[in-house]
Fold these 2 entries.
Entry 1:
Amino acid sequence: MSVKTIKAAIKKFDRFLISSHINPEGDSIGSQIAVASLLRRLKKDVVILNESPVPHTLRFIEGADNILKEIPRDFRFQAGLILDCPDMTRIGNVSEHITEDNVLINIDHHISNENFGRFNWVDGNVSSVGEMIFDLFKAFRLKIGYNEAVALYVAIMTDTGSFKYTNTTSKTHRIASELIDVGVKPYEIYGRIYEANSLQDTNLLGEALHTLKVTENGKVSWLWVTKEMLKKTKASLEGTEEIINFARSIEGVEIAILFRETGTEDKIKVSFRSKGKADVNKLASFFNGGGHATASGCTVFGKIEEVEKKVLEKAQGMAK
Ligand code: 5GP
Ligand code: MN
């Protein structure tokens, strides 16, 4: 389906619940805020509901305060607009509010998307859902306002690794250029998100880097964040997002892996990044996860050493 089908679907309904994945990042938060604004301009009733809170580095986005963790008691909705989620389990406990009567509109850029909606607009070739919401503004012929531009810029900047990942296209840059013309200041947004680390989170990076290892052939690198490290440094799990990039940045590495203890006994969050040759969506799917060819994740149960062994075996098989 295309943006036109989604435009037609949106026109049919008056009340929307917007949601996105647990542990949200820039694309999820920015896209939800921008699409909520679009819907409100169309005079729709909208609630954004997320299981997880907005990360503190994204709270500066105008509208972030309107992302709720509890649904207003008397709010009834016809359509659920689900962004940046390959499947419905990713919205966590928000799914408890969705019934058979609700129509689902699925807007996503994960190749692993299960097309779970009545209306599915899934395009694995775009950098971010932010780009898709930009196209939706165009389809409705709505002029993008400053706050909407900031939200979309955050979505696109974060999912492209600041315009450097393989998903960055000339269109990505044309969209960014248009958002800058609306008034977005790239330096300011970058600073808000990437130059706002706490000392605690930076100390955690130091601890994690001590665990960094590379396989004999140099193609797989991995590192850990344990509960103990979090306790010692008083860092937040939220602050661990960028750590994996240090593992990927090593010359010759094809696959980088981050193992994080979640705080729940024997539940390890595993993140994968690839430089492009290895398909880490496939790697994550061995462990019931998913994502993109170059960035994916999964949850594996077991002690961190056991999980490491299992996952490394598979990863080495894919990066020969
Ligand atoms: P991250 O490593 O930053 O948590 O996630 C990287 C990418 O993988 C994101 O696009 C995210 O949606 C996807 N991803 C992370 N964890 C999971 C998971 O457990 N299941 C699925 N299906 N996708 C995941
Ligand atoms: Mn995304």
Entry 2:
Amino acid sequence: MSTRISVIGMGTMGVGIAQILIASGYEVMWLGHNKNSVEAGLAGIDASLHKAVKKGMMTEQKMTDAKGMLSTTTEYKDIEGSEAIIEAVKESVDVKIDVLRSADRHRGHSVIATNTSSISITRLSEALEDKGAFLGMHFFNPAPVMKLVELVVTEHTSEEAEGRARSIANACGKTAVRVNDYPGFIANNILIPMLYEAAILLERNVAEKEGIDTIARLGLNHPMGPFELADFIGLDVCKEMADSIYDATKDERFKTPDSIKGMVAAGKLGRKTGEGFYIYKEGRQGA
Ligand code: 3HC
């Protein structure tokens, strides 16, 4: 019998994490908030699995086998008996604490991990009875493609919990890197100042946005330029991450540039709203 992992949350990251687990042979119990989120989650994972087949990352047969490993529920009691529980609900301390508390009641002996970009793992650990079983597993978007997981440990995280989380990440083909709990961990501390520096250079009219993106792609070998990437992540998500790091550190590098603040206020959030730095038509970059 295969090992069972529970995933909580059916947004972009929940979909991606559930997908990599079922594609790696884990049975997944996928918990959604209500019937509507379950339906949306299933549509999302179906589309993402088809994308993986189209890209030659898996065969049609493997996709069918993977789908057979997935069960959905809206009841916390169904997560009982899991090797691990991975929470990937929206990036809000209150919502995450609420969900983690409910999950903890049905945890049994499982490790419990949160996927967050910048919320303090130590703060979230307050929701749990046994803080030793808890850590952060920070996956990157798109989760099926990105090879890294930051394993974020607190002073309480046990070696056993860290080891089990690492084994799961490795079994999914990811490299796991241990990081001590710190505002923004490592990757987003590097990423946000880079994205914001690009926005400031654009505000100063040093080059056009297309030029700056080309420079990062061809001169630095980044797969996407900073504006393409910011639009891909979502400008609201970038700002939320930056605000969270700024609140904790008061580091000026995390103060959101006016141009990005303006776009967020205007609802121009990037690909998901059809406009950010660029305009998108059917997911493609337009004029
Ligand atoms: N399964 C599901 N979706 C996939 C996929 C797969 N196997 N492979 C690609 N995709 C998605 C992409 O996300 C993209 O989304 P879209 O449909 O909404 O446009 C789409 O497929 C198209 O991909 P393309 O074929 O156009 O492009 P490539 O496959 O060549 O590369 C990419 C796409 C992997 C996104 C590449 O450009 C890349 O690596 N970009 C950088 C991504 C990055 O830096 N991510 C980290 C973000 S920061 C983060 O996650 C931290 C968090 O805390 C915010």
